[in-house]
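can u do me a favor
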C-alpha cells in the first residue's frame, strides 16, 4: 500500500541519540536502482513502473507526480491511468488487467486510498504478483514466509535497509516490534527473522493481546514502533542505548503524529527523526522492487 507517509519535512529531536534519517538510505537504494536500470536499458529493456489513480484527491495526485518524476530520474517508463472517481470495481480491475498483460510493464501500483465505494484489497489481489511493487499481494506475503524471491513489502524492506545502511547490527540481537499489522509489523517480523546477515534477529511481536508489552520493549536492542497510536512509545518503554525505529504514524489532516514520543531521544542510542525516517525508504523500495521485477522478467 502506498500511504500518505511520503512527506519530506524534517525535524530534529532535542536529545542525545544519534539520528537515523531515511533520505541517505533512499539515495543509496535509488543509486543502485538507477545502475540496474541502466544495465537493463543497455540490453534494450526499459524498466517501467505503472500507476493507477482513481478519483481527484490532490494529495494522491501529488504522490503520483513525485513517483513519475522519480521514474524519469531513474530512466524508468511510467505509464499512468487516471480513472474517474465514479469508476466501478470492474473498471479498476480492467485497468489492472491491461497492465498485467502488458509485457512492457514490470511493476504496477494502485495509489491508496481509492474512493470509498471501491474495495482496495480486492483490487490488490488482481495485480500480477510478479508486478506487485508494494509487495503486499497475499502470494508475496507467502513467498516472504517461505523465503522465495519476490517483491518485498516496501516499509519492512526499507527498515531492514535503514538498519544495514547505518551498520546497526541486527543478527543475534533482540528486536521487539510493537504492532502486528499486515502492512508493517507482521511482514517485518518475518523479514528480520530470516537467515541473512542483515537480519537473523531474535524477533518478538507485541500487540493489544499483550497488555504488559512494555516488559518486552524495555529489553529490546532494537525497538520498532508499528502501532499507529500517537505517542504510544514513551522513554520508560525504551532500554537505555537502544535503537528506536518509529514507523507507525497517524495523520490529523496533514499533521503527522508519530508513535514515538520525541523524549525517547533522551534515552535511545539511535533513533529515526520524527519526520523523514522510514518514509523515504518506503518510496525507494517501490523502484527497487520494479527494477528487480524487470530483471526477473528478462532472465
Ligand atoms: N512509514 C511508512 O512508510 C509506513 C508504511 C506503512 C504503514 N505505516 C504505519 O505503520 C502503522 C501500522 O500499520 P499497519 O497497517 O500494520 O496497522 P494496523 O494493521 O492498524 O496494526 C496496528 C498494530 O498495532 C497494535 N496496537 C494498536 N494499539 C495498540 C496498543 N494500545 N497497544 C499495543 N498494540 C497496539 C495493533 O494490535 P492488535 O493487532 O491487537 O489490534 C496492531 O497489531 C500505521 O501507523 C501506519 O500508518 C507507515
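np, heres the sequence
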Amino acid at each position: 500500500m502506498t500511504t500518505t507517509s511520503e512527506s519530506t519535512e524534517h525535524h530534529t529531536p532535542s536529545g542525545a541519540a544519534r539520528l537515523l534519517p531515511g533520505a541517505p538510505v533512499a539515495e543509496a537504494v535509488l543509486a543502485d536502482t538507477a545502475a540496474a536500470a541502466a544495465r537493463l536499458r543497455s540490453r534494450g529493456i526499459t524498466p517501467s513502473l505503472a500507476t493507477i489513480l482513481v478519483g481527484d484527491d490532490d494529495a494522491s495526485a501529488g504522490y503520483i507526480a513525485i513517483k513519475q518524476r522519480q521514474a524519469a530520474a531513474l530512466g524508468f517508463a511510467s505509464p499512468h491511468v487516471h480513472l474517474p472517481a465514479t469508476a466501478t470495481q470492474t473498471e479498476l480491475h480492467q485497468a489492472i488487467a491491461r497492465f498485467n498483460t502488458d509485457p512492457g510493464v514490470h511493476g504496477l501500483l494502485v495509489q491508496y486510498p481509492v474512493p470509498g465505494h471501491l474495495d482496495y484489497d480486492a483490487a490488490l489481489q488482481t495485480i500480477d504478483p510478479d508486478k506487485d511493487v508494494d509487495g503486499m499481494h497475499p502470494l508475496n506475503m507467502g513467498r516472504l514466509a517461505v523465503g522465495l524471491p519476490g517483491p518485498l513489502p516496501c516499509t519492512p524492506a526499507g527498515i531492514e535497509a535503514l538498519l544495514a545502511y547505518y551498520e546497526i547490527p541486527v543478527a543475534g540481537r533482540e528486536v521487539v516490534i510493537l504492532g502486528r499489522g499486515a502492512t508493517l509489523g507482521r511482514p517485518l517480523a518475518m523479514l528480520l527473522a530470516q537467515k541473512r546477515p542483515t537480519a537473523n534477529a531474535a524477533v518478538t511481536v507485541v500487540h493489544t493481546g499483550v497488555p504488559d508489552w512494555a516488559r518486552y520493549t524495555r529489553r529490546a536492542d532494537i525497538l520498532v514502533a508499528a502501532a499507529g497510536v500517537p505517542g504510544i512509545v514513551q522513554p520508560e518503554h525504551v532500554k537505555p542505548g537502544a535503537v528506536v525505529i518509529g514507523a507507525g504514524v497517524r495523520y490529523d489532516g496533514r499533521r503527522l503524529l508519530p508513535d514515538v514520543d520525541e523524549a525517547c531521544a533522551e534515552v535511545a542510542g539511535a533513533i529515526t527523526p520524527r519526520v523523514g525516517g522510514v518514509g523515504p525508504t518506503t518510496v525507494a523500495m517501490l523502484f527497487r522492487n520494479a527494477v528487480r521485477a524487470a530483471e526477473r522478467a528478462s532472465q
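Residues 1-13 have pLDDT under 50 and may be disordered. hope that helps!!
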